Amino acid sequence: MQRLAVKTTPIVGQKPGTSGLRKKTRTFMQQHYLENFVQSIFNAIDDGNGFSHKTLAIGGDGRYYNRQAIQKIVRIAAGNGLGKLLIGQGGIMSTPAMSAVIRRRNIYGGLILSASHNPGGIDEDFGIKYNSSNGGPATETLTELIYQKTQQIDTYFSIDHPDIDIDHIGSIRIGDTTVEVIDPLEDYVATVEQIFDFEKLRRLFESGFRMLFDAMNAVTGPYAKRIFVELLGAPPDTVINGTPLEDFGGIHPDPNLVYAAELVNRLYAKDAPDFGAASDGDGDRNLILGKSFFVTPGDSLAIIAEHAKDAIRGYANGLRGIARSMPTSTAADRVAASLGIPLYETPTGWKFFGNLMDAGLCTICGEESFGTGSDHIREKDGLWAVLCWLSILAHTGRSVAEIVRLHWQRFGRSYYQRHDFDDLDQNAASEMFSSLRTKLADLAGRVIADRKIILADEFSYTDPVDGSVSKGQGIRLILESGSRIILRLSGTGTAGTTLRMYLESYSSNYDSNIDEILSPMAEATVELIELEKYCSRRHPNVKT
Ligand code: VG1
Ligand code: CO
Q1: How far is the CA of 200 from the centre of ligand 1 (A)?
Q2: Which of 352, 342, 301 is nearest to 461 (CA)?
Q3: pLDDT tens digits, residue range 22-71?
Q4: Complete domains list, the chain, with CATH
Q5: Whose CA is nearest to atom 20 of ligand 1?
Q6: Which pTM value belongs to this model?
Q7: Which residue numbers are catalytic?
């Protein structure tokens, strides 16, 4: 077998965003596109000691091009003289499972092939992210370095070898590299079994408790079937859309009120099950529903933190701290205060939680974008959140709605929504932000939607562990009595630009109509940022 050094030239635009490099699938299929990026990852993670003693893992969410990409990466790994490559059987591995594999097997890192909640298919999206030896997403410093390497690349390494069988567990040698196909469920299931009391959860299902889990034809199907059906004894029809499909069956695998329509309809129908949940393309997000009841991600984070010590075996010693991304609602802050533990506010993106967890500063983390997780791994974890809720339901014997209402009674309620304006012209959107930045200094003291603005700034974060500074992380308007308006541009899209507008209003009265409270704030914000003038838009595509 011959190792090959293939000449190449830099390709513009290979800059990782909020979570890895995401592009149209056809872009990834262009000559040398994937090879350049993967070789740049190898160049960036090279610590000078070579790769012969290192192990990496690879797997993806099963979307179109997953299998072909794995075959190419096998050759690149062998071309770079990697010691060992672990591949999830069938090319499958959820993002949280990758984190579990890296941590449990103590390996150097892993590549996840996924564009997460973005649709899949030849005309949709593909993506690659790199996770480091702590099991977490590459830090900003590393993604910057990878980007630099993509701008300097002149050669990638490969090997002359045909495609290998990735559908059967086993091991072969390619050049100096051992390639092993592993069960992608094993490490993950073992990790969650340590945290949750499966015996107690089995009794919940035995008692006739009914749940519906929507895997959205994406990666979580096999994990959900193993855990809920095989291990916890739930009936097989508990899991819907449970087989990973290359195009996710045409579903947009983003578990929110708009895209998880089938699940939402069934939970709002007569004779609905007790509990409903869904996860996204790569299995790191979660949607939580009760009978005719939606739990916002911010409330879910706060409620999991509130009950963790009593209801979940793995947290019986209490929590060290809670972290949330800046746009996420402040519900968790109130729980942290009542528990007497610190609350950390980070920029959007899971990579910012890693240092806090590694340093033992926080146990539970969450984002408004349906991401929740803990220090059991270094990724957000959709099924973990579902298991947390099952544990809380089993422990309290109450319904989802009762648990949330009791939380609001005790802590008050953050009325919260995110409005997404998709497909904006990139230049127009940046001009709009530039103009908004110039206005910030004069906003404090002014009134918006009957609320006085206390602070208007652009969020900047100094990592308390390594001191690194991340600037430009979203414009925030802090209003009186606990209201907030946050604006930022998405870093995960592949076409045009998405504006995200996050609205929060706090009240001790928890039975008001959410639209009556938030709509005036949304309208006033659209005026303030002159969305119509710059982007010819007034109304969001998604409200969730
Ligand atoms: C979005 C979310 C962010 C999340 C990221 C990756 O990023 O807002 O909270 O961490 O997606 O999630 P952005 O830049 O588009 O707002 V996932 O499930 O795609 O790994
Ligand atoms: Co995801």
Answers
A1: 33
A2: 352
A3: 999 999 999 999 999 999 999 999 999 999 999 999 999 999 999 999 99
A4: 3-184 (3.40.120.10), 188-411 (3.40.120.10), 413-543 (3.30.310.50)
A5: 116
A6: 0.95
A7: 116
